[in-house]
Amino acid sequence: MTEAQDPRTIRPTTRPTTKATVGMRVTHRRYVPYSYAHYAGNLVDGAYSLAAFGDVATELCIVTDGDEGLFASYSDVQFRSRVQAGDVIEISAELVRVGRRSREMDFEVRVVARGDEEGGGSAARVLDPPVVATTARGVVVVP
């Protein structure tokens, strides 16, 4: 069998199609456990938000391209308000630009509920409106 006949050497000639379109959005919600408190006042470090951005970016790439993608960069990261243990946060990624292999996204962490220390032990309250805690823009590359 020659190399040209060997099916293991055949390379696809067409690129897989993407479902990525500007405006697509993925949103996660999660409770921030007290084990993540890093500073006084149960404050959680900013890296927690960045890790959450990675999670929503991964899901968005799976939905659009069938691949987890690889984070290439963050830009314009802004910590606008605190995230603390006992919060319920909502993390979103919105596709703002689609390149041949790159996907540019806007990210946002919103605190939608917070533990209520004055209410005692397990008291909490829904925040209306939610508090925007962290924003960023990032680029993910897919194969």
Explain what you see.
The chain is mostly beta strands. The protein has a single domain, classed as Thiol Ester Dehydrase, Chain A. It has one helix at 47-65, and strands at residues 25-31, 70-79, 88-98, 102-115, 124-141. Strand 3 (88-98) and strand 4 form a beta hairpin. The mean pLDDT is 90.
CATH class: Alpha Beta
Question: What sort of overall outline do the alpha carbons produce when their principal axes are compared?
Answer: elongated
Number of helices: 1
Distance between the termini: 31 Å
* Structural class based on helices, strands and sheet pairing: mainly beta
- How many separate domains? 1
Look up the CATH topology: Thiol Ester Dehydrase, Chain A
The SSE order reads EHEEEE
Q: Which blocks of ≥5 consecutive residues have pLDDT under 50?
A: none
Under CATH, the homologous superfamily reads: Hotdog Thioesterase
- Mean pLDDT score: 90
Major β-sheet profile: 5 strands, antiparallel
What Rg, in angstroms, do the CA atoms define?
20 Å
The proportion of residues in beta strands is: 35-45%
- Count of DSSP strands: 5
Helix content: 10-25%
Lateral arrangement of strands in the main beta sheet: 1-3-4-5-2
Q: At CATH's second level, what is the architecture?
A: Roll
How does the SSE layout of this entry go?
Elements: E1 25-31, H1 47-65, E2 70-79, E3 88-98, E4 102-115, E5 124-141
Antiparallel strand pairs: 1-3, 2-5, 3-4, 4-5
